[in-house]
Amino acid sequence: MTLLATLDPADADLTACLGRVMAAVLKPGDVLALQGPVGAGKTHFARAFIRARQGEAAEDVPSPTFTLVQTYADPLGTEIWHADLYRLTHPDELAELGLDEAMREAIVLIEWPEHGGPLPEPLTVALEPHVDFPELRRITLSGSEPHWGFATRLPVIARLIHRAGWAGARLFPLAGDASSRRYFRLLDGDRSAVLMDAAPGTTDGYVAMTQWLRHRDFHAPEILAADQIEGLLLLEDLGDDLVARVLEADPALAPRIYDRMTDLLVDLHRQAPPDFVPRLDGPELARQVGLFAEHYPAAAGTPGLGADVAPVVEALHEALCETIPPVLGLRDFHAENLVWMGDKPLGLLDFQDAVAVHPAYDLVSGLQDARREVAPDIEAAQIARYVAATGMEDARFRAAYALLGAQRNLRILGIFTRLAQEEGKRRYLAFMPRVWAALQRDLAHPALAPLAAALQGIPAPTPKVIERIAG
User: Fold this and answer.
1) CATH of the domain at 202
2) Burial of 174 (C-beta count, 10 Å sphere; 0-12/13-18/19+)
3) What is the band of 182 on the pLDDT scale with cuts at 50, 70, 90?
4) The last residue of a domain, from among 236, 263, 285
5) CA–CA distance, 100 with 119 (Å, rounded to integer)
6) What average pLDDT does this structure show over 418-444?
7) In a shared domain, residues 179 and 267
8) Which CATH number belongs to the domain containing residue 414 in this structure?
9) Is the pLDDT of residue 451 over 70?
10) What is the mean pLDDT of residues 52-68?
């Protein structure tokens, strides 16, 4: 058993907060072994955990000292078993209590676990009085690292939430993205917030971009609290009305919403890009499109093809894009990262990888969306709207738009292939036909003839090719 993390010192509120954080991530089959002397806070911890799982339907959670076992159910139907083995006379009694089977199908919290013999790969939560302050505790988490490695993050999350005044909040996992970041919604009465859990030391770019955007009245989420060393940010909750969801529920809103998206880019591009963002220029675009040549052709059954894609992209960028000053590109500007707020400005999400890039880059990102169809007439209208608002030279802008669309779509095909083959994330393969169709529209532009030639012979992501990629 490996020592995973320590929370020291912890008062009663922080102890309960850790229980609530843990309640958000544990699943059926997980076993918590709660160790510590009488009065250390084991039942206090378990009570916070169980009530967080139950939410509005929360019951009283008495100590199971005399009953030995209490069972509960959360709104999703997960059973939670709370056991106290202090009065157990023999480990064989575990089977009589039903704990053997529960540990396979339920979340099980066990006080005095040492009285029950060996447990199946538990996470041990040891609570002991603080040496200098008896009213405080020292909490340690221990377990097998392959199974419980994620638990190293839980105390630092609890510490930030507690410090920010959200110790009583319940946490709910939110859908993540293709990165390693994960998100939780915090609910505490009538207020809510969102926690970003990123790799330690990786939030500087997000914080800098948030400050830059908010200073210019763009609606990036306010940062409520932060631990940038640990990669944790507590953010304003912009709600669940992602543009993608609003469009799915009411497709008739599409012209209005896409007008607002384009106008946001027009306003954003009137600002000089900040000095701290990197330049996404021709050489870098060429390097990134190398992901396509590295992964897709071989996976599709045509190894060796597409080797000239990167230098062709770089040469075309120099010919079509270099004369236009770069603007700020949020890079992942699309319907999944924008929040519809009615008459208020669109809410912005996922902008930490912002770059200085050609003005067409984010417009392509929003209009050639890998995850959803954008009607051809809307795409054409928004290109025209942007050109009219910015005074860009129409023919040259459309050629650059096609090039940057092709580069993005090739890169995305490479990323989706790598995610499927190296990380087992196959759900993105379903988007490949849409991405390929957008790529073909881009390649039809006469200025991209050299790129179309460099891609000759590489097959489309047909069902058979996708099956081959999925392995």
Assistant:
1) 3.30.200.20
2) middle
3) very high
4) 236
5) 9
6) 96
7) no
8) 3.90.1200.10
9) yes
10) 81
Q: How far is CA 155 from CA 127, 128, 158, 174, in A?
A: 13, 16, 5, 19
d(CA 40, CA 16): 12
Residue 353 belongs to what domain range? 243-470
Q: ∠412-417-422 over CA atoms, to 5°?
A: 125
Structure tokens at 183: 């998100």
| Pairing mode of beta strands 79-84, 107-111 | parallel
Of 286, 280, 320, nearest to 401 by C-alpha is 320
Residue in the block written with tokens 């106008």: 263
Quick check: 178 pLDDT over 60? Answer: no
pLDDT value of position 99 = 82
Asked which of 114, 148, 165 is the last residue of a domain, the reply is 165
Q: Are 210 and 220 in contact (CB under 8 A)?
A: yes
Q: List all residues 6 or more positions away from 454 whose beta carbon is below 8 Å from its beta carbon.
A: 306, 308, 309, 312
Taking each helix axis as running N to C, give the angle between helix 309-320 and helix 282-299, from 0 to 180 degrees, rounded to the nearest 10: 150
Find the CATH number of the domain harbouring 27.
3.40.50.300
State the CB neighbour count (10 A cutoff) for residue 392.
Answer: 18
Section 24-39 average pLDDT: 95
Distances (CA, A) of 292 to 113, 365, 415: 53, 17, 7
- Binned at pLDDT 50, 70 and 90, residue 179 comes out as low
> Do 204 and 339 belong together in one domain?
no
Total-model pTM: 0.88
pLDDT one-digit tens code per residue, 286-317: 999 999 999 999 999 999 999 999 999 999 99
Do 253 and 223 contact (CB within 8 A), yes or no? Answer: no
Q: Which helix (H) or strand (E) holds 438?
A: helix 432-443
Based on the structure, what is the number of domains in the chain? 3
Same domain (yes/no): 200, 292: no
